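Hey, quick one: can you model this chain's 3D structure?
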Amino acid sequence: AIPRMSSLTESAVRFAWSLLNQVIEQHKSENVFLSPASVQVALAMTLAGAKTETEAELSQALHLSQLKSPHSDMGRLISALNSGRQGVKLAVANRLFAERSFAIEGEFSGTLAKSYGAELGSVDFKQQCEAAREAINQWVEQQTSSKIRELLAQGSLDSNTRLVLVNAIYFKGDWKHTFNPESTYDGQFESAPGSQSPVRMMQQTQQFPYAEGRGLRIVQLPFAGGSCSMLIVLPFERHGLSAALQAVGSLEDILALAGSATEQEVDLHLPRFKVETQFSLSDPQYLPAMGVKRLFERGHADLSGISTAENLFVSKVVHKACLEVNEEGAEAAAATAVAIACFSMPMMMPFFVTEPFLVLIKDEATNSVLFAGRINQPKE
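Sure thing. Here's the predicted structure for all 380 residues.
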């Protein structure tokens, strides 16, 4: 078991915050949803084969540089996440697809197998890269219960591809307190001041953990079994989410605020929504802007821990995630491919989610942020 705030969890929470902010910064008006846990695992797998400055950059960006044994720590986290959850389905899967003619260092494949449970898939990128792409997509589709299809688009691999690291995470949970569909009504959601759109608004009055402070209000919706929960974060000042998040400045503080929640009678109004997003995290505005540069540079990347046969570099990191929230519960999936306080409360707390909000899905046992996003425009 992993202590709730181990140094690994701390680094994961820090990485989650910097990644989420980096992506939100680029997509100010669109929905953003991703799995920081998934991206971190895929990049940590790559880190296992990185050397010299490539390793230092990646380790620092992943906030893993202070850990003595990041891969075995990561392995324990993955097995803790995969250990079965009462009332929810949660699965994390990893795989490495390598060019079959390619000599992989034994130590690297050993670390992947031992810490990440990642099998080595052997494919023919040189002659049949389209078939290889289909095989990888099929594997991701299976691992995410068909939620993530076509992770790698046509033409995204070519005969120079040597290595594709794939990490998939799937989550499905029923609410501990389900919403009565008969209470769902036609509501309005204001994605920007004066810009309204119709939504199907779910409603229930129930005891939920509720917290407020630091300019934020948080309600925590537990899933059945209590092992995971969804946090819905709203600003005090209407349409003040980004300012409030900037003022807080860390995900640790948001999680600590959520941890101080007390059970309140909450009148909750939450839109039904689906979100699906895809990002190429190797593009300059994402990971390279977070300090991961050499990994993507031909001739500068040092991945000699993976193979010394040729000068390897990572050509692409693709991340796709989706979330569906309805009366019964929530379903989320993500895949990442690396080609290579105390105060008195009123009796009833109104909590109307009618403006952009932050959503987090976290695992209570490990305190891992499985998914994170900002919803500007809930659509079904």
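One thing worth noting: Confidence is low (pLDDT under 50) at residues 1-5, 341-346.
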